[in-house]
Amino acid sequence: MSIRLRDVSFWYGEKKILDRISLEVREKEHIGILGGSGSGKSTLLKLLSGLYTVKEGSATVAGEGTTEGIRKKVAMVMQTPGLFPLSIRENITCGHPIAEEKIWEAVRAAQLEEWVKGLPDGLDSLVGERGGNISGGQAQRIAIARAIAKDAPVVLLDEPTSALDGETADALLRAMECLTEGKTVIHVTHREETIGNYDRILVLKEGKLFEKESVSGI
Ligand SMILES: Nc1ncnc2c1ncn2[C@@H]1O[C@H](COP(=O)(O)OP(=O)(O)OP(=O)(O)O)[C@@H](O)[C@H]1O
Ligand SMILES: [Mg+2]
Fold this sequence. Notes:
Layout: E1 3-12, E2 15-25, E3 30-34, H1 41-48, E4 56-61, H2 67-73, E5 74-77, H3 88-93, H4 100-109, H5 113-118, H6 136-150, E6 154-158, H7 166-180, E7 184-189, E8 200-205, E9 208-211
Parallel strand pairs: 3-7, 3-8, 5-6, 6-7
Antiparallel strand pairs: 1-2, 1-4, 8-9
Helix pairs in contact: 4-6, 6-7
Bound molecules: adenosine-5'-triphosphate and magnesium ion (MG).
Adenosine-5'-triphosphate is lined by residues 12, 17, 35, 37-43, 190.
């Protein structure tokens, strides 16, 4: 099993967000999770990525039971890419020693090769404060290149295609196919069309996780 949650609960202060959630995900399975705004989708991914610790219950991800172990086995792409005001290269490697060829493989898979090769400083071009020198779609694909370069067995996606126009979204979707192929994937979203071809679709509602068929009114 790639992911195993047992009776996991989580709350911020007094407010319970996740209420005894259990989930088993097989290796390389692609799971979509639907849920309205504020239903706890991002919170669930933060637990699965080892950013937060479960308050009750247990979480095992890629065989790891500690947040430190989990963080090494998971690559996450968030709604807003969160780039550093450094070079494209540094945004992809995050300071890890990654071979030049591997970086270019990730750039290619993320549909960024043509653009990066056309820049005067190539991979060493600066993305600027808050990604100021680049478009939203390019920023998101740099975040995807970072996740591809990490080559982690588990990929977590938090609405990575929202708020982008049609043409950009096409390149983004191709990049995401490269990122998710052969990996265990959890993709949370409030838009069902982005997870149409996934193996299983679940729904997060009122702190509980359901199989989609058993839920109405979402
Ligand atoms: N750091 C925090 N401290 C306190 N409350 C929080 C924190 N982060 C989120 N919440 C609250 O927890 C609930 C779930 O938030 P979460 O971000 O997980 O929802 P979401 O399903 O990802 O929503 P969206 O679709 O808008 O991204 C919300 O009510 C939110 O206000
Ligand atoms: Mg969210």
